[in-house]
Amino acid sequence: MQILLKLFVSFALIGLGAYGGGLVTIPLIQHELVDQRHWLTFDEMARILAISQMTPGPIAINAATLVGFQIAGFWGAVAATVAVVLPSLSILLCLAPFMDRIGQNAKVLRFKAGMQLGILSLILFAAWSYGTAAIKNGQELLLAVAAFLFLIVSEGKVHPIWAILACGAVGSIIF
After folding, report:
1. Does residue 123 sit in the same domain as residue 140?
2. Angle between helices 22-29 and 59-95 (to 10 degrees)
3. 155 with 106, same domain?
4. Tens digit of pLDDT for each residue in 78-135?
5. DSSP string, the chain
6. Does residue 65 sit in the same domain as residue 81?
7. Top-confidence residue, 136 or 82
8. 67 pLDDT more than 90
9. Separation in Å, CA 130 to CA 32, 98, 116, 159
């Protein structure tokens, strides 16, 4: 029973900090599950996040379900999944009636602008963490930079899947 409570608290913290989308949860998951709880190694977390990104649905919910199941079976999956959703659902239910007024408040808008920079820092940290784990040599760095530049130059006119497939094709030749 104690492990279910720990799972619940850990994923409630992840859910509370998940403002900004799935990529923001990656450093939160790493901090909570790898660095603090030591439930996962970095490589295990990377595999779980890869599966979470490939399956339909939000990364945080998929990761919570997978990690919860891995740690405590069915009830662990339930506890972690409910916990990761509960903070945002609670906040949404409490604030929904006031969103028109809150959304136009100058202080709230300034706070939101500041939070966006914090969210950007988490996304950059996720890129740094995974980049340093994925890029082992100059060829890999060059390929990653080329794909990144391709995405910037295409300005959303080309589907990002082409960058992934192109890197896979080049990787199969080079590596």
Report:
1. no
2. 110
3. no
4. 999 999 999 989 988 988 888 888 878 888 889 888 988 988 888 888 888 878 878 8
5. -HHHHHHHHHHHHHHHT-TT-HHHHHHHHIIIIIIIS-SS-HHHHHHHHHHHHHSSS-HHHHHHHHHHHHHHHHHHHHHHHHHHHHHHHHHHHHHGGGHHHHHH-HHHHHHHHHHHHHHHHHHHHHHHHHHHHH--SHHHHHHHHHHHHHHHHHTTSS-THHHHHHHHHHHHHH-
6. yes
7. 82
8. yes
9. 16, 39, 21, 22
Tokens of 28: 């939160």
Closest CA to 169 of 146, 151, 152: 146
Please give the mean pLDDT across all residues of the chain: 89
pLDDT of residue 35: 92
- 147 and 66 both lie in a single domain: no
Residues 114 and 150 in one domain: no
149 lies in the same domain as 82: no
Q: By residue range, what is the domain housing residue 59?
A: 2-129
Q: Name the percent of the chain lying above pLDDT 90.
A: 46
